[in-house]
Amino acid sequence: MKIRFTLNGTNREIDIKPDMLLIDLVRQLGCYSVKRGCETSNCGLCTVLVDGKPVLSCSTPAARADGKDVVTLEGIEEEAAAFGRFLAGEGAEQCGFCSPGLIMNVLAMEKELSHPNEEEIKEYLAGNLCRCTGYMGQMRAIEKYLNREGGQ
Predict the structure, then answer these.
(1) Residue 152 clears pLDDT 70, i.e. is over it
(2) For residue 120, which phi and psi values (nearest 5 degrees)?
(3) Is 31 helix (H, G, I), strand (E, B) or coil?
(4) Is residue 45 over pLDDT 60?
(5) What is the reported pLDDT for 132?
(6) According to the model, what pLDDT value does residue 134 have?
(7) How many Å apart are CA 81 and CA 45, to the nearest integer?
(8) If exposure means fewest CB atoms within 10 Å of the residue's CB, which of 4, 23, 57, 121 is most exposed?
(9) 3-class state of residue 149 by DSSP
(10) What is residue 38's DSSP assignment?
């Protein structure tokens, strides 16, 4: 089946198998920031933005990307680097394996929620698992990033 979509600002037209998952499609197209973790929609490592909303690509059929705008970390490098500096500043990057999914969700949350409090941040990011940090450094980084000058 043929689908047409935009990936990180580039129009794509590609033949896919009907059972192909979005994670496999974006990785096939060179977007290796999209990680495979649990493959059960529980860890957030595979998060991409579809029409600006976070989507777990490990459980999303690639066919659902037809006519949509799909963004991975490769498509928002400047914004990701800006938030990444906050993560590093709080010592919250540790191994970094979970960072791409976390960053995608934080950047989506920044656009979706206006001045979220700590509970709203935790609720929004509830599906992002990290085995290294204990989340405190990540929370400090997120709060500092969202409250930065020129930010929200």
Answers:
(1) no
(2) -65, -40
(3) coil
(4) yes
(5) 78
(6) 75
(7) 17
(8) 4
(9) coil
(10) -
3-state SS, residue 28: helix
Kindly report the pTM of this predicted structure.
Answer: 0.91
| Residue 70: Cβ-neighbour burial (10 angstroms; 0-12, 13-18, 19+) | buried
Percentage above 70 pLDDT, the chain: 97
**Hunting for tokens 């197209």 — which residue is that?**
29
Q: DSSP labels for 101-142?
A: HHHHHHHHHHHHSSS--HHHHHHHTTT---SSS-SHHHHHHH
Which region holds residue 122: left if phi is over 0, alpha if psi is between -120 and 50, else beta? alpha
Helix (H) or strand (E) holding 145: helix 136-146
The per-residue DSSP string of 41-110 comes to S-S-TTEEEETTEEEEGGGSBGGGGTT-EEE-GGGGHHHHHHHHHHHHHTT--TT-TTHHHHHHHHHHHH
CA distance 8 to 20: 19
CA distances from residue 14 to 21, 25, 126 in whole angstroms, order as listed: 14, 9, 33
Residue 1 tokens read as 């089946």
